[in-house]
C-alpha cells in the first residue's frame, strides 16, 4: 500500500500555470495506476486525468483536455499534473489517487476505482 502526498497548489491568475506533484511512498509504485481528481466547494469529486502504470496511456476529462498534462516518473515515485491556461472554474482541491493494478497499459477513470488517496492540495484561480 502506498501513501500519497500532494504538493504544488496555490493561487494563480486566470491564464496562468501550476504544476502539481504527488509523491508516493513504497517500492512498488510502478505497480500502481494513478490519477488526479478534484473537488470544488459544494460539488462532488470529479475525475481530471489518469495515467497507466508504464506511463504509456493517459486519459483526460473533456474540461481539461489540451490544457492539463499528467505524467509520472517511476524511478522517483512521483506523478505530476501540469496545468496551463487555468480558468476560475479549475478552482478546487486536487487529489492524487492510486490503485494497485495488474495491467501495465490501462487507465482507470472512476472514483470508485481508487482505494488510496492523498490529502489534497488547494488550487485557486482568480479572474
Report on this structure.
Helices cover 0% and strands 48% of the residues. The strands form two sheets. Strands 2, 4, 5, 6, 9, 10 and 11 form a seven-stranded mixed β-sheet that branches. A four-stranded antiparallel β-sheet has the order 1-3-8-7, with no helix packed on it. The protein contains no helices and eleven strands. The chain has 127 residues and is an all-beta fold.
Topology of helices and strands:
Elements: E1 4-7, E2 10-13, E3 18-24, E4 32-39, E5 46-51, E6 58-60, E7 68-73, E8 78-83, E9 92-100, E10 116-117, E11 121-126
Shape: globular
Q: Taking all residues together, what is the mean pLDDT?
A: 96
Helix/strand structural class: mainly beta
Q: Unreliable segments (pLDDT under 50, ≥5 consecutive)?
A: none
How would a textbook summarize the main sheet?
7 strands, mixed
Radius of gyration: 14 Å
Bin the helical content. Answer: under 10%
Give me the number of helical elements.
0
What's the helix-strand series? Answer: EEEEEEEEEEE
Number of strands: 11
Tell me the fraction of residues in β-strands, as a range: over 45%
Report the end-to-end length measured between terminal Cα atoms: 40 Å
